[in-house]
Design goal:
The chain is of the alpha/beta class. The protein contains seven helices and ten strands. It has helices spanning 24-32, 51-59, 72-84, 126-132, 139-149, 162-172, 225-231; strands spanning 5-7, 12-14, 41-45, 64-69, 91-95, 107-112, 150-161, 177-185, 192-200, 209-214. The protein has an eight-stranded mixed beta sheet with strand order 5-4-3-6-7-9-8-10. The chain has a two-stranded antiparallel sheet with strand order 1-2. Helix 1 (24-32) runs parallel beside helix 2 and helix 5 (139-149) packs across helix 6.
């Protein structure tokens, strides 16, 4: 690990100027989100340090990746991280509110690790508050932005705490439908701490695919085989 960041197998993320650092949520979603071979355009909403956008570029050999964020420092840092990666020519980072972002073409895949604290106290650090709280992007606004930018047959992948995932589903009810749902458990005893969702405009023909992943199994920093398999292309020690 270099100072101020995190080194993956094929790229390095400097997150020194971002309120939200590289963490399990972003890495999990970046590895789990489906990226169909036909996808030409992928959008990362609230990119922060650019982690998910760069992971998408590694996973999909031809897609163009657009990453947006409202924080100027994060946009600069994500741009630097993208330029330093092997896929710089396919990644564009833009400073923009989702509510104001109006590209000419729609996206085949949209991915987001969004702010989710709606009712908790705001941090005195304005940058951290923006990154963590829905004041800058409510679930209703997120849903409306996704519907406006998503191709008709596109998919939206998101990670949220369990209670907040229900708020998003409530905000999108009747407009976005669950195709995949993955419970993320910290340990076998913890219960679901995060939910990853794959949503589309049309309901699935059958029931949504239900999945579960346990991160640590057998002790602190003893990672489960399923977690290691999911993230093996990224983490240095897997």
């Amino acid at each position: 690990m270099r100072r101020g960041g995190f080194t993956f197998k094929q790229f390095h993320i400097d997150h020194s100027r971002c309120a939200m650092k590289v963490g399990t949520d972003g890495t999990l979603l970046g590895a789990w989100a489906a990226l169909p071979p036909h996808a030409k355009k992928i959008l990362d909403i609230g990119t922060g340090s650019g982690l998910i956008a760069i992971m998408a570029a590694q996973r999909h050999p031809t897609a163009k990746i657009t990453a947006i964020d409202i924080d100027k420092d994060c946009v600069m840092q994500a741009t630097e991280n993208a330029v330093a990666s092997p896929w710089a020519e396919r990644i564009e980072v833009i400073e923009s509110l989702l509510q104001e972002y109006s590209p000419e073409e729609k996206f085949d895949v949209i991915i987001s690790n969004p702010p989710y604290f709606a009712d908790s106290m705001h941090s005195p650090d304005k940058q951290r508050t923006t990154a963590r709280h829905t004041a800058s992007l409510s679930f209703k606004e997120l849903t409306e932005g996704v519907l406006r930018l998503l191709a008709d047959d596109g998919l939206f992948a998101v990670i949220l705490p369990t209670a907040e995932s229900e708020l998003l589903l409530s905000a999108s009810r009747g407009r976005l439908f669950t195709w995949r749902r993955c419970e993320v458990w910290s340990t076998p005893e913890s219960g679901a701490r995060r939910i990853m969702l794959e949503l589309k405009r049309e309901p699935p023909k059958d029931l949504a695919q239900k999945e579960k992943i346990i991160i640590e199994q057998g002790g602190r920093h003893v990672y489960s085989e399923e977690y290691k398999a999911l993230t093996a292309d990224f983490y240095l020690n897997f």
